[in-house]
Amino acid sequence: MSKLGDLGARLHRGEVGYDFIGNRKIWYGLSILITITAIVALAVRGLNMGIEFQGGAVFTTPKSEVSVSQAQEYAEEASGHDAIVQQLGNGSLRIQVGGLDTAQSDQVREELAKDMGVPEEKIAAELVGPSWGEQIATKAWTGLGVFMILVVIYLAIAFEWRMAIAALIALIHDLTITVGIYSLVGFEVTVGTVIGLLTILGYSLYDTVVVFDSLKEQTKDITKQTRFTYSELANRSINGTLVRSINTTVVALLPVAGLLFIGGGVLGAGMLNDISLSLFVGLAAGAYSSIFIATPLVADLKEREPAIKALKKRIMVKRAAAAAKGEPLDAADELSAEAAVVGPRAGRHGAQERRG
Question: How many domains does the chain have?
């Protein structure tokens, strides 16, 4: 078995682990800081909306000796507006100029043909109205709202309402960070970006549900035992699925990175670049939130329940009494008291060895 596979097996059995729940205030603080930064960036800088949302014209020129910077200069001189130029994989250029009507578009096309030394009929011009972008944005918001409602309903039925609330907060966290990064670095928001943002919701939810499913199984009849608190079992659930979450995230990020850095960066595929960028950021944020945000939030909410609070009190009293008498705790209790993660199998083995 590989070292990673062996580590995954030991994490699943509870032989080793990291105290994610015990350090949750660190993760909360980090997430709050990142989220505030994203919100401030959105308020101050706003988003660099693409041509689809603000209206204008898109010109596609044939391959020529004109560089991207030269084409941008020509387009801005001809239109009097800022221009965005992308080089496509076949050497042609895609020039976007906002705020143009039909007459202005024809004039800019004519000027570009003269400046670039290409036949005017070889330059394809496409006029985009802002109303189309507004329709896309409206439908995207509608789809997002419906998705959020369905997610909360499903998780509340399949698991419980606390997990539904935690998953919803994690999704909002992921979207805010992704959109904030777009604002901070000035990436253009296009239809591809919207598609990517809607797609990452499913990926983000996947890792969270995997941990929740393990947690649901671990905490079945939790009040009938006095070995583990709810937070300790939540910690075990995160550690038990940690390697699986990392593996699925890495496997998902690799093709997305290929689309982003090769398809978009090298080949100049504009739509692929827009989709893959939002996917790359969103997948990374989703993996983070499923481990460091969603499950710790569930633990915090559950620890407020009277029954779970009473269970924790009984466990602490039991451990304190055993420590005061100098009596050895159950192996699982000893490690739990040290904020380690221990599986029930390890506890049974320890008890068998003491009886032996």
Answer: 2
From 73, 103, 128, give the residue that closes a domain: 128
Per-residue burial over 35-70, b if 16 or more Cβ lie within 10 Å, else e, is eebbeebbeeeebbbbbbbebbbbbebeeeebeeee
CA 99/CA 80 separation, integer angstroms: 10
Sign of CA pseudo-dihedral 317, 318, 319, 322:
positive
In this predicted model, what pLDDT tens digit does every residue of 311-348 receive, in sequence order? Answer: 999 999 888 888 888 766 554 454 444 444 444 444 44
Number of Cβ within 10 Å of residue 257's Cβ equals 16
Do 146 and 118 share a structural domain? no
Tell me the CA distances in angstroms from 62 to 49, 77, 88, 342, one per residue in order.
26, 20, 10, 64
The closest of 284, 292, 273, 277 to 248, measured between CA atoms, is 284
Question: 273-307 pLDDT, tens per residue?
Answer: 677 888 888 888 888 998 999 999 999 999 999 99
> Among candidates 139, 168, 182, which has minimal Cα distance to 39?
182
Q: Are residues 74 and 203 in the same domain?
A: no
**62 plus 45 within the same structural domain:** no
Q: Residue 126's Cα: distance from chain center in Å?
A: 34
Q: What is the length of the chain?
A: 356
Q: What is the CATH number of the domain that holds 63?
A: 3.30.70.240
**Interatomic CA distance for residues 244 and 248, integer angstroms:** 6
Nearest Cα to Cα of residue 160 among 219, 237, 201, 203: 219
